[in-house]
Amino acid sequence: MNVAHAQNEELAAELRTYIEAKMQQNNIPGLSACIVKEGQIVWQDAFGFADVDAERPVDMETLFTLASISKLFVGTACLQLWEQGLLDLDADINEYLPIEIKNPNFPTEIITARQLLMHKSGLRDYESDLQLWDGPGDPIYDLETFCTEYFLPDGSLYVASNWGQFAPGSADYWYSNAGFTLLGYVIAEASGMPFNEYCRENIQLPLGMETAGWFYENIDTEKMAIPYKFVGGGFESYGLYSVPEYPAAMLKSNLPELANFLIAFTNEGKLGGVQLLQKETVELMLPADMTNGLAWWGSDTWYGDQDGNYWGHGGFMNGVRTQLSYYPATETGLLILTNGQSDYGDIHDKMESMVASFIASPSPVDERAPGTLIGISPNPTSEQLQIAHTIINGQFAIFDLSGSKLAEGLLHEQINLRGLSKGNYVLHIYDEHGKERAVQQFVKQ
What is residue 368's predicted lDDT score, i.e. its pLDDT? Predict the structure, then answer.
């Protein structure tokens, strides 16, 4: 084991001990977390139970409800459509909708996608509203029905006080789940695809998020983390429920797949050969002064980092608490997913303090091997890796992120991965003399 692997293992052991203690102290049933650095996962681990009653442990395939981290996918979809010329961020949203939505206090003022992305549209709904219509299984309203009933004055869910006394665009920041639900409807109409299908085709699948989904009918519910509350000395299940404001809250993902989304933002909008957003679009979404972000929490938002060290987004629902943080100064990030409702702040701070100490694997083409050509595809992959190289009589080895060797053999054009479970791995390529010539991380899905 080399020095980097040894150091990472020592840090991982320290983190595991700390997190386990905090989970017990704070009554967190299950947790999955990772740190990303230099375009790869440098640490990941799983703790506790996804299903307490069945004693089913959390692992890298466990799907967590992301709660409001889902809003970052809404924002990404909007900016993709903006890049394609299909959505004007500053146009009246009614140009895209089959219904007309107005702030009744300012009926002549337009509402724009940019205002909604910044939570400055004038909507004044409360976070507790998410619980008004939650129920078992998938949402009881489809997106069009919900928006019609919620936003139109004659709708059965309409409440005039959900609109504020400040005009859209001049309104102060007010965190709005309804606003991001409305954006989901705008995305569907502007793209000509149902919102969930647009996200799957244009965000999830390109990033290798094949097991992620917005609805239970589209995922493997046997891998879901059950949401819990701690009552009377034990955990009580909420069951698998949904809210109709699903674009704002209901995406489900496992940790490694969500990490691909985070890595793309730490890497100027790119993951491997996938350009999720153009570099300039990421800069528009996440301004350098850490304010006025589009969908993301910055230093000027209710729940953002007031010190301006990271962009992020958290999630909080019944039995769910999650966090995604991106540190632009160091191009690093971290994720915490839980199926409880207790505070994870100390865990977040501990992970944050250790990011600099973790050592990333070398770049895909190692500078110690000038002239060596190495490429792998597809990445993410499921059954095998296709290898493009110029190494004769070489060998390969596959390691997990802790540095444990899981497979090795002669280097051929294809490497079979059927013996590996889903997760993130590191491929090492050696020449005929045993000299390491290239290292590259890949995802088995």
Answer: 30
Compute CA 80 distance to the chain's CA centroid, rounded to the nearest angstrom: 16
Write out pLDDT tens, residues 188-214.
Answer: 999 999 999 999 999 999 999 999 999
Neighbour count for residue 393 (Cβ, 10 Å):
10
Q: What is the pLDDT of residue 3?
A: 66
Residues 250, 142 contacting (CB under 8 angstroms): no
Q: Whose CA is closest to 392, among 431, 365, 436, 439?
A: 431
| Residue with the two structure tokens 């053999």 | 409
Between CA 164 and CA 103 the distance in angstroms is: 8
| Percentages of the chain per state (helix, strand, coil), in multiples of 5 | 30, 25, 45
CA terminus-to-terminus distance, the chain: 26
User: Can you name the CATH fold of 1-360?
Assistant: Beta-lactamase (3.40.710)
For every residue of 4-50, DSSP letters joined together read HHHHHHHHHHHHHHHHHHHHHHHT--EEEEEEEETTEEEEEEEEEEE
pTM (2 d.p.): 0.84
Helices assigned H by DSSP within 27-152: 70-83, 113-117, 143-151
Tokens encoding 186: 């705008």
Question: How many helices (H) does the chain have, and how many strands (E)?
Answer: 9, 21
């959900």: which residue's tokens? 162
b/e map 100-127, b = 16+ CB within 10 Å: ebbbeebeebbbbbbbbbbbbbbbbbee
Angle at 379 between CA 374 and CA 384, to 5 degrees: 85
Number of Cβ atoms within 10 Å of the Cβ of 419: 9
**Spatial CB neighbours of 336, under 8 Å, sequence gap ≥ 6:** 31, 32, 33, 322, 323, 344, 347, 348, 351
Sequence-ordered list of residues with C-beta below 8 angstroms from that of 290, at least 6 positions apart, any chain: 298, 299, 300, 305, 308, 311
- Beta pairing class for 40-51 and 135-136: unpaired
DSSP states along 161-213? GGB-SS-TTTSPP---HHHHHHHHHHHHHHHTS-HHHHHIIIIITTTT-TT-B
| Separation of alpha carbons 312 and 325, rounded Å | 4
In the CATH hierarchy, which top-level class contains the domain 374-444? mainly beta
Distance of CA 204 to the CA centre of its chain: 10
* Domain regions of the chain by residue span: 1-360, 374-444
Q: What is the distance between the alpha carbons of residues 263 and 443, in angstroms, rounded to a whole number?
A: 12
- Residue corresponding to tokens 């009918």: 217
Query: Is pLDDT of 371 > 70?
Result: no
